[in-house]
């Protein structure tokens, strides 16, 4: 369970309502498959396990939970997908990305174009060209 304590920090509680770890976060999301997104004091986000340990130690401007092995992540260049080690799957960056379904994801370019990409970041189908 995710809670916010009296000092304003977010943390997770165990089933017996004890703190799961000592750290407090600017924000903490719910666990999904044993991994949660947390935000540090500098506003960047990473993944932790149920004991509060960093999963990969990489920090992003924005981050989502893992879905089918990949997470949506945003760095200074834009959105992408990362694997469980926090490594980007591809070098391209987008204005928006959706999770992968059946190995494909819908993305939007910074200029408004939309396409479907595969897990390597390669274009599968153009949905809306300029």
TrEMBL record:
Q: What is the lineage of its organism?
A: Bacteria, Pseudomonadati, Myxococcota, Polyangia, Nannocystales
The protein's organism comes out as: Nannocystis punicea
Q: What is this protein called?
A: WG repeat-containing protein
């Amino acid at each position: 369970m995710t809670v916010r304590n009296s000092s304003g920090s977010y943390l997770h509680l165990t089933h017996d309502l004890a703190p799961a770890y000592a750290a407090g976060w600017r924000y903490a999301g719910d666990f999904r498959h044993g991994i949660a997104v947390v935000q540090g004091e500098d506003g960047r986000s990473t993944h932790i396990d149920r004991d509060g340990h960093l999963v990969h130690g990489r920090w992003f401007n924005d981050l989502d939970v893992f879905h089918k092995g990949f997470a949506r992540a945003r760095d200074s260049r834009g959105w992408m997908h990362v694997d469980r080690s926090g490594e980007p799957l591809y070098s391209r960056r987008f204005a928006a990305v959706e999770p992968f379904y059946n190995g494909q994801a819908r993305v939007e370019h910074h200029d408004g174009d939309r396409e479907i990409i595969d897990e390597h970041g390669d274009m599968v189908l153009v949905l809306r060209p300029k």
